[in-house]
């Protein structure tokens, strides 16, 4: 299972950019002992990279018992992270300093969903 975005994924992500802010949905399944590694990654993200690229964590929490889901569709953690633009997120993941800590996330996870969301227009 892929846990990190690949070049082709990032290219498509930027091509589909509707403009404006983006909220990244993160669904995480930890490897045995992976939570500690992810916590180190999250600390670096919060202390250095989110401020640098204008991001903010909107919600972060442990996954609970799913009310509606197929077997195996439960997640250990769920995060919503807002960035001012898709470009800002892309610049962050390309940052050489970020690249030095991203292995902590990769090692921590057995499975992940990283999905861009766009706010619905008010009706």
The arrangement of helices and strands along the chain is HEHEEHHHE
Helix content: 25-40%
How are the strands of the largest sheet arranged?
2-3-1-4
Highest CATH level, the class: Alpha Beta
Rg: 15 Å
Largest sheet: 4 strands, antiparallel
Question: Could you tell me the number of beta strands?
Answer: 4
Low-pLDDT segments, ≥5 res: none
Q: Mind telling me which CATH architecture this is? A: 2-Layer Sandwich
Summarize model confidence as the mean pLDDT: 93
Q: Which keywords apply here?
A:
single chain, 123 residues, alpha+beta, Alpha-Beta Plaits, 4-stranded antiparallel beta sheet, 5 helices, 40% helix
Account of the protein in words:
Pfam families: DUF1330. InterPro entries: Dimeric_a/b-barrel, DUF1330. The chain is an alpha+beta fold and about 120 residues long. It has a single domain, classed as Alpha-Beta Plaits (2-Layer Sandwich). It has five helices and four strands. The chain has helices at about 5-15, 35-55, 85-95, 95-100, 100-110; strands at about 20-30, 55-60, 75-85, 110-115. Strands 2-3-1-4 form a four-stranded antiparallel beta sheet. The longest helix is centred in the middle third of the chain and has 20 residues, at about 35-55. It is globular and about 35 Å long. The N and C termini lie far apart (about 40 Å). The model has no long low-confidence stretch (mean pLDDT about 95).
């Amino acid at each position: 299972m892929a846990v990190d975005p690949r070049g082709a994924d990032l290219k498509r992500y930027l091509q589909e950019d509707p403009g404006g802010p983006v909220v990244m949905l993160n669904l995480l399944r930890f490897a045995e002992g992976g939570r500690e590694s992810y916590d180190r990654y999250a600390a670096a993200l919060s202390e250095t990279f989110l401020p640098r690229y204008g991001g903010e964590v909107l919600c972060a929490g442990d996954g609970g018992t799913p009310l509606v889901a197929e077997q195996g569709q439960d997640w250990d953690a769920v995060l919503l992270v807002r960035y001012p633009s898709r470009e800002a997120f892309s610049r962050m993941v390309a940052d050489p300093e970020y690249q030095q800590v991203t292995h902590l996330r990769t090692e921590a996870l057995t499975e992940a969903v990283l999905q861009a969301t766009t706010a619905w227009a008010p009706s």
